[in-house]
Write a structure and sequence with these properties.
The protein is mainly α. It has one domain: Farnesyl Diphosphate Synthase (Orthogonal Bundle). The protein has 15 helices and 2 strands. The protein has a two-stranded antiparallel sheet with strand order 1-2. Helix 3 runs antiparallel to helix 4 and helix 3 packs across helix 9. It binds geranylgeranyl diphosphate (GRG). The site of geranylgeranyl diphosphate has 18 residues, from helix 4, helix 8, helix 9 and helix 10.
Protein backbone atom coordinates (compact mmCIF):
# COMPACT_ATOMS: atom_id res chain seq x y z
CA UNK A 1 0.00 0.00 0.00
CA UNK A 2 2.78 2.46 0.98
CA UNK A 3 4.70 1.73 -2.22
CA UNK A 4 1.57 2.29 -4.31
CA UNK A 5 0.89 5.62 -2.58
CA UNK A 6 4.48 6.68 -3.28
CA UNK A 7 4.12 5.74 -6.93
CA UNK A 8 0.85 7.66 -7.25
CA UNK A 9 2.44 10.73 -5.64
CA UNK A 10 5.35 10.52 -8.06
CA UNK A 11 3.10 10.31 -11.12
CA UNK A 12 0.71 13.02 -9.94
CA UNK A 13 3.70 15.33 -9.73
CA UNK A 14 5.07 14.21 -13.09
CA UNK A 15 1.75 14.51 -14.96
CA UNK A 16 1.17 18.06 -13.73
CA UNK A 17 4.23 20.25 -14.24
CA UNK A 18 3.97 23.91 -13.25
CA UNK A 19 3.56 26.01 -16.35
CA UNK A 20 2.42 29.54 -17.26
CA UNK A 21 0.29 31.03 -15.66
CA UNK A 22 1.99 29.65 -12.56
CA UNK A 23 -0.71 30.75 -10.11
CA UNK A 24 -3.28 28.30 -11.45
CA UNK A 25 -0.85 25.37 -11.61
CA UNK A 26 0.35 26.09 -8.10
CA UNK A 27 -3.24 26.16 -6.83
CA UNK A 28 -3.99 22.86 -8.63
CA UNK A 29 -0.88 21.20 -7.22
CA UNK A 30 -1.33 22.57 -3.70
CA UNK A 31 -4.28 20.42 -2.55
CA UNK A 32 -3.30 17.58 -4.89
CA UNK A 33 0.10 17.19 -3.27
CA UNK A 34 -1.07 17.41 0.35
CA UNK A 35 -1.03 14.00 2.07
CA UNK A 36 -4.33 12.36 1.21
CA UNK A 37 -4.97 8.67 1.71
CA UNK A 38 -4.94 8.07 -2.08
CA UNK A 39 -7.59 5.37 -1.67
CA UNK A 40 -9.18 5.88 -5.08
CA UNK A 41 -6.02 5.74 -7.26
CA UNK A 42 -4.69 2.82 -5.20
CA UNK A 43 -7.95 0.92 -5.72
CA UNK A 44 -7.84 1.61 -9.46
CA UNK A 45 -4.26 0.31 -9.77
CA UNK A 46 -4.88 -2.65 -7.50
CA UNK A 47 -8.06 -3.67 -9.33
CA UNK A 48 -6.18 -3.64 -12.64
CA UNK A 49 -3.36 -5.76 -11.14
CA UNK A 50 -5.64 -8.12 -9.25
CA UNK A 51 -7.66 -8.87 -12.39
CA UNK A 52 -4.57 -9.77 -14.38
CA UNK A 53 -3.91 -6.42 -16.07
CA UNK A 54 -0.81 -4.27 -16.25
CA UNK A 55 -0.98 -1.91 -13.28
CA UNK A 56 1.07 0.79 -14.98
CA UNK A 57 -1.42 0.99 -17.84
CA UNK A 58 -3.91 2.19 -15.22
CA UNK A 59 -1.66 4.95 -13.81
CA UNK A 60 -3.05 7.84 -15.92
CA UNK A 61 -6.66 6.90 -15.07
CA UNK A 62 -5.76 6.38 -11.39
CA UNK A 63 -4.13 9.83 -11.19
CA UNK A 64 -7.03 11.39 -13.11
CA UNK A 65 -9.47 10.01 -10.52
CA UNK A 66 -7.39 11.55 -7.70
CA UNK A 67 -7.44 14.88 -9.60
CA UNK A 68 -11.23 14.68 -9.84
CA UNK A 69 -11.46 13.80 -6.13
CA UNK A 70 -9.25 16.78 -5.23
CA UNK A 71 -11.35 19.04 -7.45
CA UNK A 72 -14.41 17.98 -5.46
CA UNK A 73 -12.59 18.66 -2.16
CA UNK A 74 -11.48 22.14 -3.27
CA UNK A 75 -14.99 23.08 -4.38
CA UNK A 76 -16.61 21.44 -1.35
CA UNK A 77 -14.52 23.66 0.97
CA UNK A 78 -15.57 26.93 -0.71
CA UNK A 79 -17.60 29.42 1.35
CA UNK A 80 -20.60 28.87 -0.98
CA UNK A 81 -20.54 25.11 -0.20
CA UNK A 82 -19.24 23.55 3.05
CA UNK A 83 -17.14 26.60 3.96
CA UNK A 84 -14.22 24.76 5.50
CA UNK A 85 -10.93 26.50 6.26
CA UNK A 86 -8.84 23.35 6.48
CA UNK A 87 -8.23 20.32 4.29
CA UNK A 88 -5.65 17.56 4.62
CA UNK A 89 -4.24 19.32 7.67
CA UNK A 90 -3.54 22.62 5.93
CA UNK A 91 -5.52 25.75 5.02
CA UNK A 92 -8.06 25.05 2.27
CA UNK A 93 -7.28 26.03 -1.29
CA UNK A 94 -9.36 29.24 -1.25
CA UNK A 95 -7.69 30.32 2.02
CA UNK A 96 -4.30 30.22 0.28
CA UNK A 97 -5.11 31.22 -3.30
CA UNK A 98 -8.37 33.15 -2.94
CA UNK A 99 -11.85 32.10 -4.01
CA UNK A 100 -11.54 32.87 -7.71
CA UNK A 101 -8.36 30.84 -8.11
CA UNK A 102 -9.77 27.98 -6.02
CA UNK A 103 -12.84 27.78 -8.28
CA UNK A 104 -10.57 27.88 -11.33
CA UNK A 105 -8.12 25.33 -9.86
CA UNK A 106 -11.05 22.94 -9.35
CA UNK A 107 -12.30 23.56 -12.89
CA UNK A 108 -8.79 23.08 -14.25
CA UNK A 109 -8.35 19.75 -12.43
CA UNK A 110 -11.73 18.56 -13.67
CA UNK A 111 -10.58 19.04 -17.26
CA UNK A 112 -6.88 18.22 -16.75
CA UNK A 113 -7.89 14.76 -15.52
CA UNK A 114 -9.39 13.46 -18.81
CA UNK A 115 -6.63 15.27 -20.71
CA UNK A 116 -4.14 13.20 -18.68
CA UNK A 117 -5.98 9.98 -19.53
CA UNK A 118 -5.83 10.82 -23.24
CA UNK A 119 -2.25 12.08 -23.29
CA UNK A 120 -0.57 9.65 -20.92
CA UNK A 121 -2.37 6.32 -21.40
CA UNK A 122 -0.33 3.76 -23.28
CA UNK A 123 -1.34 0.38 -24.63
CA UNK A 124 -5.10 0.87 -24.30
CA UNK A 125 -7.44 0.21 -27.21
CA UNK A 126 -9.57 3.10 -28.56
CA UNK A 127 -12.62 1.28 -27.13
CA UNK A 128 -11.06 1.13 -23.66
CA UNK A 129 -10.13 4.82 -23.80
CA UNK A 130 -13.59 5.94 -24.91
CA UNK A 131 -15.23 3.80 -22.25
CA UNK A 132 -13.00 5.18 -19.49
CA UNK A 133 -13.69 8.76 -20.60
CA UNK A 134 -17.41 8.02 -20.77
CA UNK A 135 -17.37 6.61 -17.23
CA UNK A 136 -15.36 9.64 -16.03
CA UNK A 137 -17.77 12.20 -17.49
CA UNK A 138 -20.85 10.31 -16.32
CA UNK A 139 -19.67 9.82 -12.73
CA UNK A 140 -18.26 13.37 -12.39
CA UNK A 141 -21.39 15.09 -13.64
CA UNK A 142 -25.10 15.38 -13.00
CA UNK A 143 -25.45 11.58 -12.84
CA UNK A 144 -22.81 11.37 -10.11
CA UNK A 145 -20.79 13.75 -7.94
CA UNK A 146 -22.77 16.87 -8.80
CA UNK A 147 -26.09 15.12 -8.14
CA UNK A 148 -24.82 13.97 -4.74
CA UNK A 149 -23.60 17.43 -3.80
CA UNK A 150 -26.84 19.15 -4.87
CA UNK A 151 -28.99 16.80 -2.81
CA UNK A 152 -26.56 17.12 0.11
CA UNK A 153 -26.91 20.92 0.05
CA UNK A 154 -30.70 20.69 -0.27
CA UNK A 155 -30.86 18.28 2.65
CA UNK A 156 -29.18 20.83 4.93
CA UNK A 157 -32.30 22.97 4.58
CA UNK A 158 -34.49 19.94 5.29
CA UNK A 159 -35.72 19.92 1.68
CA UNK A 160 -36.43 16.24 1.03
CA UNK A 161 -38.19 15.19 -2.13
CA UNK A 162 -37.73 11.56 -1.08
CA UNK A 163 -37.72 10.06 2.42
CA UNK A 164 -34.71 10.93 4.67
CA UNK A 165 -33.46 7.33 4.32
CA UNK A 166 -33.64 7.37 0.53
CA UNK A 167 -32.16 10.86 0.40
CA UNK A 168 -29.20 9.87 2.55
CA UNK A 169 -28.58 6.77 0.47
CA UNK A 170 -28.69 8.86 -2.71
CA UNK A 171 -26.19 11.36 -1.27
CA UNK A 172 -23.76 8.66 -0.12
CA UNK A 173 -23.93 6.75 -3.37
CA UNK A 174 -23.41 9.83 -5.51
CA UNK A 175 -21.09 11.97 -3.41
CA UNK A 176 -18.83 9.22 -2.15
CA UNK A 177 -19.33 5.76 -3.64
CA UNK A 178 -19.26 7.13 -7.18
CA UNK A 179 -15.48 7.79 -7.20
CA UNK A 180 -14.70 4.34 -5.78
CA UNK A 181 -16.95 2.89 -8.49
CA UNK A 182 -15.11 4.91 -11.12
CA UNK A 183 -11.76 3.71 -9.73
CA UNK A 184 -12.52 -0.02 -9.76
CA UNK A 185 -14.47 0.11 -13.01
CA UNK A 186 -11.54 1.82 -14.78
CA UNK A 187 -9.10 -0.70 -13.27
CA UNK A 188 -11.30 -3.58 -14.44
CA UNK A 189 -11.79 -2.11 -17.93
CA UNK A 190 -8.02 -1.67 -18.28
CA UNK A 191 -7.54 -5.31 -17.22
CA UNK A 192 -10.00 -6.34 -19.93
CA UNK A 193 -12.27 -7.94 -17.33
CA UNK A 194 -15.62 -9.41 -18.34
CA UNK A 195 -18.81 -7.37 -17.86
CA UNK A 196 -19.72 -9.73 -15.04
CA UNK A 197 -16.50 -8.98 -13.17
CA UNK A 198 -16.84 -5.22 -13.83
CA UNK A 199 -20.32 -5.35 -12.25
CA UNK A 200 -19.07 -7.41 -9.33
CA UNK A 201 -16.33 -4.84 -8.62
CA UNK A 202 -18.91 -2.10 -9.08
CA UNK A 203 -21.05 -3.74 -6.42
CA UNK A 204 -18.00 -3.95 -4.14
CA UNK A 205 -17.32 -0.22 -4.65
CA UNK A 206 -20.94 0.75 -3.92
CA UNK A 207 -20.76 -1.09 -0.61
CA UNK A 208 -17.28 0.23 0.13
CA UNK A 209 -18.38 3.79 -0.67
CA UNK A 210 -21.37 3.56 1.66
CA UNK A 211 -19.20 2.07 4.42
CA UNK A 212 -16.59 4.76 3.86
CA UNK A 213 -19.11 7.58 4.13
CA UNK A 214 -20.54 6.09 7.33
CA UNK A 215 -16.94 5.90 8.60
CA UNK A 216 -16.45 9.57 7.62
CA UNK A 217 -19.68 10.56 9.41
CA UNK A 218 -18.64 8.69 12.57
CA UNK A 219 -15.15 10.20 12.48
CA UNK A 220 -16.67 13.67 12.21
CA UNK A 221 -18.28 13.02 15.59
CA UNK A 222 -15.50 11.22 17.44
CA UNK A 223 -12.20 12.26 15.90
CA UNK A 224 -9.79 15.18 16.24
CA UNK A 225 -8.50 17.86 13.88
CA UNK A 226 -5.04 16.28 14.08
CA UNK A 227 -6.34 12.92 12.88
CA UNK A 228 -8.72 14.17 10.19
CA UNK A 229 -6.86 17.27 9.00
CA UNK A 230 -10.13 19.19 8.75
CA UNK A 231 -12.63 20.81 11.07
CA UNK A 232 -14.45 18.19 13.17
CA UNK A 233 -18.03 18.20 14.47
CA UNK A 234 -19.23 20.30 11.54
CA UNK A 235 -21.94 17.87 10.43
CA UNK A 236 -23.54 17.83 13.85
CA UNK A 237 -23.31 21.59 14.31
CA UNK A 238 -24.85 22.30 10.91
CA UNK A 239 -27.68 19.79 11.49
CA UNK A 240 -26.56 17.85 8.42
CA UNK A 241 -28.29 14.66 7.35
CA UNK A 242 -25.74 11.92 8.09
CA UNK A 243 -25.90 8.23 8.93
CA UNK A 244 -25.17 9.08 12.56
CA UNK A 245 -27.81 11.83 12.81
CA UNK A 246 -30.46 9.63 11.19
CA UNK A 247 -29.77 6.24 12.76
CA UNK A 248 -27.54 6.97 15.80
CA UNK A 249 -23.91 6.03 16.44
CA UNK A 250 -24.50 2.36 17.36
CA UNK A 251 -26.60 1.61 14.28
CA UNK A 252 -24.11 3.49 12.13
CA UNK A 253 -21.30 1.26 13.43
CA UNK A 254 -23.36 -1.88 12.84
CA UNK A 255 -24.17 -0.81 9.29
CA UNK A 256 -20.50 0.01 8.68
CA UNK A 257 -19.41 -3.43 9.93
CA UNK A 258 -21.97 -5.27 7.85
CA UNK A 259 -20.99 -3.32 4.70
CA UNK A 260 -17.29 -4.03 5.29
CA UNK A 261 -18.12 -7.72 5.77
CA UNK A 262 -19.96 -7.71 2.42
CA UNK A 263 -16.88 -6.09 0.86
CA UNK A 264 -14.63 -8.82 2.33
CA UNK A 265 -16.96 -11.52 0.99
CA UNK A 266 -16.70 -10.09 -2.52
CA UNK A 267 -12.96 -9.45 -2.47
CA UNK A 268 -12.01 -12.72 -0.75
CA UNK A 269 -12.04 -14.70 -3.95
CA UNK A 270 -9.40 -12.37 -5.40
CA UNK A 271 -5.90 -12.17 -4.02
CA UNK A 272 -5.57 -8.56 -2.88
CA UNK A 273 -3.38 -7.74 0.08
CA UNK A 274 -3.83 -4.05 -0.65
CA UNK A 275 -7.64 -3.97 -0.62
CA UNK A 276 -7.70 -6.17 2.47
CA UNK A 277 -5.28 -3.76 4.13
CA UNK A 278 -7.64 -0.85 3.38
CA UNK A 279 -10.67 -2.75 4.72
CA UNK A 280 -8.81 -3.83 7.88
CA UNK A 281 -7.48 -0.34 8.59
CA UNK A 282 -10.97 1.17 8.51
CA UNK A 283 -12.43 -1.66 10.59
CA UNK A 284 -9.63 -1.49 13.17
CA UNK A 285 -10.00 2.26 13.55
CA UNK A 286 -13.67 1.91 14.46
CA UNK A 287 -13.40 -1.30 16.48
CA UNK A 288 -12.62 0.39 19.79
CA UNK A 289 -15.14 3.21 19.40
C1 LIG B 1 -17.57 17.39 -10.20
C2 LIG B 1 -17.97 19.72 -11.07
C3 LIG B 1 -17.95 18.80 -9.94
C4 LIG B 1 -18.30 19.24 -8.73
C5 LIG B 1 -18.10 18.49 -7.49
C6 LIG B 1 -18.16 19.74 -4.53
C7 LIG B 1 -18.75 18.53 -5.15
C8 LIG B 1 -19.25 18.66 -6.55
C9 LIG B 1 -18.85 17.34 -4.52
C10 LIG B 1 -18.34 17.11 -3.14
C11 LIG B 1 -17.96 15.70 -2.98
C12 LIG B 1 -17.31 15.42 -1.67
C13 LIG B 1 -16.34 16.38 -1.10
C14 LIG B 1 -17.61 14.26 -1.04
C15 LIG B 1 -16.99 13.85 0.25
C16 LIG B 1 -16.41 12.48 0.07
C17 LIG B 1 -15.39 12.17 1.13
C18 LIG B 1 -15.77 11.22 2.18
C19 LIG B 1 -14.18 12.76 1.07
C20 LIG B 1 -13.04 12.44 1.96
O1 LIG B 1 -12.26 11.46 1.29
P1 LIG B 1 -10.88 10.94 1.90
O2 LIG B 1 -11.05 10.73 3.37
O3 LIG B 1 -9.96 12.23 1.68
O4 LIG B 1 -10.42 9.81 1.09
P2 LIG B 1 -8.38 12.27 1.43
O5 LIG B 1 -8.01 13.69 1.77
O6 LIG B 1 -7.72 11.26 2.31
O7 LIG B 1 -8.20 11.98 -0.04
Amino acid sequence: MKELIKLVDEYLDKYLPVSYPEDIFKAMKYTLSLPGKRLRPVMCLETARMLGGDMMKAMPAACAIEMLHVQSLIHDDLPCMDNDDFRRGKPSNHKVFGEANAVLAGDALLTFAPQTIIEKSEGLSPEQLVRILYEYTKFAGAYGLIAGQVVDIESEDGKYVKSPEETLNFIHLNKTAVLFRLAVRCGAIIANASEEVIEEMDNFAKKFGLAFQIYDDIMDEISTFEELGKTVGKDKNSGKLTYVSLYGLENAKQKFNSMIKDCCDIIDKYDSKVINEILNKLRDRLSGV
